[in-house]
Automatic annotation (TrEMBL), chains A, B, C, D:
GO molecular function: 6-phosphofructokinase activity; ATP binding; metal ion binding
Phylogenetic placement of the source organism: Eukaryota, Viridiplantae, Streptophyta, Embryophyta, Tracheophyta
Cofactors demanded by this protein: Mg(2+)
Annotated GO biological process: fructose 6-phosphate metabolic process
Protein name: 6-phosphofructokinase 3
Keyword set includes Nucleotide-binding: yes
Species of provenance: Cajanus cajan
Pfam families: PFK
Entry keyword annotation includes Metal-binding: yes
InterPro entries according to UniProt: ATP_PFK (IPR022953), PFKA (IPR050929), Phosphofructokinase_dom (IPR000023), PKF_sf (IPR035966), PyroP-dep_PFK_TP0108 (IPR012004)
Amino acid sequence: MDNISRNVEEETNLSQTANVYFDSEDVHACIVTCGGLCPGVNTVIREIVCGLHHMYGVNEVLGIEGGYSGFYSRNTIPLTPKDVNDIHKRGGTILGTSQGEGGNDTGKIVDSIQDRGINQVYILGGDGTQRGASVIFEEIRRRGLKVSVVGIPESVDNDIPVIDKSLGFDTAVEEAQRAINAAHVEAESTENGIGVVKLMGRFSGFIAMYATLASRDVDCCLIPESPFYLEGPCGLFEFIRKRLTENGHMVIVIAEGAGQELISESLSAMNKQDSAGNKLLQDVGLWLSQKIKDHFAESKKMAITLKYIDPTYMVRAVPSIASDNVYCTLLAQSAVHGAMAGYTGFTVGVVNGRHSYIPFYRINEGEKKVVITDRMWARLLSSTNQPSFLNPKGTQLTKP
Amino acid sequence: MDNISRNVEEETNLSQTANVYFDSEDVHACIVTCGGLCPGVNTVIREIVCGLHHMYGVNEVLGIEGGYSGFYSRNTIPLTPKDVNDIHKRGGTILGTSQGEGGNDTGKIVDSIQDRGINQVYILGGDGTQRGASVIFEEIRRRGLKVSVVGIPESVDNDIPVIDKSLGFDTAVEEAQRAINAAHVEAESTENGIGVVKLMGRFSGFIAMYATLASRDVDCCLIPESPFYLEGPCGLFEFIRKRLTENGHMVIVIAEGAGQELISESLSAMNKQDSAGNKLLQDVGLWLSQKIKDHFAESKKMAITLKYIDPTYMVRAVPSIASDNVYCTLLAQSAVHGAMAGYTGFTVGVVNGRHSYIPFYRINEGEKKVVITDRMWARLLSSTNQPSFLNPKGTQLTKP
Amino acid sequence: MDNISRNVEEETNLSQTANVYFDSEDVHACIVTCGGLCPGVNTVIREIVCGLHHMYGVNEVLGIEGGYSGFYSRNTIPLTPKDVNDIHKRGGTILGTSQGEGGNDTGKIVDSIQDRGINQVYILGGDGTQRGASVIFEEIRRRGLKVSVVGIPESVDNDIPVIDKSLGFDTAVEEAQRAINAAHVEAESTENGIGVVKLMGRFSGFIAMYATLASRDVDCCLIPESPFYLEGPCGLFEFIRKRLTENGHMVIVIAEGAGQELISESLSAMNKQDSAGNKLLQDVGLWLSQKIKDHFAESKKMAITLKYIDPTYMVRAVPSIASDNVYCTLLAQSAVHGAMAGYTGFTVGVVNGRHSYIPFYRINEGEKKVVITDRMWARLLSSTNQPSFLNPKGTQLTKP
Amino acid sequence: MDNISRNVEEETNLSQTANVYFDSEDVHACIVTCGGLCPGVNTVIREIVCGLHHMYGVNEVLGIEGGYSGFYSRNTIPLTPKDVNDIHKRGGTILGTSQGEGGNDTGKIVDSIQDRGINQVYILGGDGTQRGASVIFEEIRRRGLKVSVVGIPESVDNDIPVIDKSLGFDTAVEEAQRAINAAHVEAESTENGIGVVKLMGRFSGFIAMYATLASRDVDCCLIPESPFYLEGPCGLFEFIRKRLTENGHMVIVIAEGAGQELISESLSAMNKQDSAGNKLLQDVGLWLSQKIKDHFAESKKMAITLKYIDPTYMVRAVPSIASDNVYCTLLAQSAVHGAMAGYTGFTVGVVNGRHSYIPFYRINEGEKKVVITDRMWARLLSSTNQPSFLNPKGTQLTKP
């Protein structure tokens, strides 16, 4: 049985006679990027190409354009060290992207891999993409092809399980500071000014949490993992009223996936028969901003000025900062070493501080989430002094 | 008749026996900031305080908090060179602001000026604010008070007439590049990707025009001064279809005041009986993005991916760049020299490259607008190669 | 006599029958960049290529690599709109550069122009380069060639006469703020901390002056146009002592061309028979820093901590800011329109706010300098409150 | 025996009856910052003050100005959450600093602590400072005072042993990219252009190594841990010659502590009898630049253009980036929890990913250094493809 057909978890070093499984001249590698943008993707592309070339003398690397469907719907493009020399200074992905999951034809993808003689497939993307990679890997194994399939996990939300941190995450938190600063300046400059900033995080509030901890200007951070409610003595409206009374202004950071159940209730309560506009209210930032404005307009107790900022695309489309560049470089080199050694069916990642190879099935077990009983969330609560929203009826606990 | 009571247009130097009208020890100056935020306001505050102190030995400068209403509803705060030493490194205004126009009681404002013995009033703000300044000036003249009223025009939209350029404008154009860059990266990274960026400019499209010229990544710039239409062979939808077919992606910049008549039509056509959501569609950026998405979804000819960015508050809440800092410094010094010489009822500004004193009534004659028959707009059209939208029925002119 | 052979000063529009002198298909343009780097050069290159292509349908544009000598020592490279699409986001020049003046063989340059059939030559560079352009123009005229020679003046020092402002200047002043900020932070953090920042400006102190005015953290600005002296009751050492005594820290900005006569004296006084190290002291920043350290070490009155920053290359190697991008675009378009209309032997530039064509001989009449009796320098003196150094023996004039 | 007198290594939780040793109202804390600047120091100060206040209700926190000597030579300043609210947005230290080691009178410091009734001392600084902290701790123990002494290790060089990473390190690596970018642009723009960048690192080359890995534009990285030589077939000069021949330009990064033995040799070989200038050559960046210029001038084989950049103060005087802000916050909270629990004589730090309390003597055992036989340095060598300089006589190994 050939080592390439085995999963990395079965054996640590499958190639029992040599550390390098592939001959350089036999390697035909390809790289594909899927899913949403994330700072650092171009750095990973660059370092796979340069790593294969400089460390192993591999010269055949192809780029697949436009995500998975590019395998069968587009021409490939050659990638040499010269082509990728400066790409890490740009945001986005030079290969283009499309949705990682669903709608792609695994059979045709593997046909393309087989027909083109590709034997190393590097796949960058989030959880949907990694699930797709797993299916491609299974199909390749079923066909008995000697092809190494390697995932590089990429999710700006930092919601990929097992691994310590997603690439591009520090850059996203850094860039989010601009939006929070602007919200703070706007809020401070008017009486009862409220700045609301929506940050990424459909299932996990990591960006919101770290951006809040880094900024120190945030009064309330709302994330999917920690439900909240608007009304009542311990609700958000009352907290806003108190904070404005004390300080005269405040900043709220909300992750895009927070408060989804509240939105559902709220929209089903509306006369929803038509409205183009109501679709927009499914965006939690627009919805919450409207709710707060309506509340204070109706209550007539307090005239507020609310400024809403959604910096999502400005956060994720920037080039990566230096620490993410180093991180991406190491991930790419780890991926290259793994593939060259004949491993397949794994995702690279740092686990407890060590570069590791993780079987696909482990990475595909749901999202990593903020644990709201853990220290980091406690630190956030202590920093913002916001309500824990644990008890909708009870009295507010001033401190966690 | 005292020189302080005259308008600057009547005579150039009213103080006929001396260049300095006020004795330093007699000066009681105050500064008030009104209207929307704009980069550079803190620099102007700093330089009025430091200019009065260092150039004339004036030590009594007060800050009025929260805009015009702060004259009668709040305590003043003392401003010394030490207090304002670092404020130019921050966005916003340390004095706070509120709407410049309407709802303020001129009588109470002038009472406060009179009662507190203030004899120099420095007023920062846009057109509404300057109109308010004019009314205050008239009331002061009516009462025969020896008070110098000086306006420093501040509108990030650059829509103040007579003067060459508003303070903070270059900073706003600079900061807008981030949003356009992000839109460009997002658009480039997907098939038929469209990035839409809304920029400030209710009546005038200067920020949108200059940001487009500076970026070179924009395919279409829509401003209030140049009407456009969506449908038809020369409409926006068709232009989008063509540009996507040619390039695979595009960036649209739209000023907040563009296309207002289209929105009105569009919203009145909707079943508008209710909807909280529909209010959001009065925002031209959200409205246009929805329209484009709907059009391509319905036409089924082309699957597009649209990303919308509204960087407004991130653009206007930043500290000013160096060139604006110098500009603000010179404006503030000009204001101080004018007031100390006994001039009143004027706004400072650079006109045809020269620092000038402009009577209030001149600055209050409507907004400055982009002249779409002028060279700068022609340069933009030549740079984006967008349709001129001049003839809704006719054929598209490929070049101006 | 052909219009191309005439100097622009002789007639305004030489082509008497048409506004466009060249047919698009006949144009063979080339671009060369010489002298030191300056932010915005790549923008100009981009806009010449795109302007010729989009506005006139010209497709033949060549890049000359490595400055003037590239005409005869290197291959040319083709420049299309696609090639230059993103170059304005990079610092430096994609064409490379070398010294603009001297050592280049005019005959061989013009031979190359003639042999390659080039009929439009765009030359970017400072005063040396423009003098070279003038010589090339004369030789072309002597040979009776129908070649348009156009200069685009580029000097980060802003020392080019006649024109209002050099391209890249605002960017340089902006970037210089980082160095001044760092110097200020370092100085503030230690007792008797002195931060010294050297900025560009061999003959003219514009960058130093504007960077000082923009920053407000500078205590003393030394430029070539305003001599200073070290010793005596009104000398720099005494001013430093006073300022440190009052404030505990200070920042000095010095232009590279300031104090040259003091350095000469100082170095000739040294035992200079050998020293590799002494060469370094011809750098005014290193020299002044050493002098200040030695003075306070010897005087034993005050222990100082001096930090020296030379940000020269970090300032001039950045991409241009938005306002410079617009400026470069307009200059390039102006150059293209001029050449296409058949003008030759001129430099483009903004003069009193208007885009103008300036004959070479006017631009080559010495450097533009800061006029120290003008308002701007007075503003600087009032801002820093530094001595005027006008009278080495007399008493210090405290201030207006 | 009181728990406060024990070292943290002796027992983990000294306070056997309660988690909190101090009563809030009894705490009199002080903070002192020593040694060179480092991004993030103000964040730590802020979070100690806010952590004590918000988490424990402590209101008495003093700032000691100007480093250790401030204990006896200056007044203290009160620090409240309001005072420190915005300081994390500024570089440097609001408390000022001075050399951490030597010349300070431990007796007088402890007298001041005792006389002022201070019972928590937070000390920020590098290895010298931590050694000083250890001595202060011993003296406090000798006198039997119930004072908690806590170190927060701060060295931008990242050379503190035991801990994973120093605060501010990521910021420094980020900021160093600007200098490397500028060097790269300058080098690329001239024929045989060489950019030399000196980065911090007297004993350890971490900043140089990570900045090189992050940038990808560096051709050679020289650090104290890896000796190099100039001459010979495997020397630096020959490597430069080869790289220039291949690529036409190159960038060299050198840590300030690299090549010290070469400088000594070189300077002792010079006629050093006098020269002020020669002192400057003890700066390895200036020295190396001169050596390279001299070599190529003498050899006459190749005309080079060398640009030298020393961004040291611009790198270390900036505010910290978001990830460092979070890191500083957690360190400060860890310090506060430790002190409040009654621990003393320890430094806080992250060790193998965990926040830990480290006894002073462990942190004072020499510098952490780059291990040049480890993976990270191998990655760097593979990335730059520079010579390993392991064998001065032998042939160059192309790859590690």
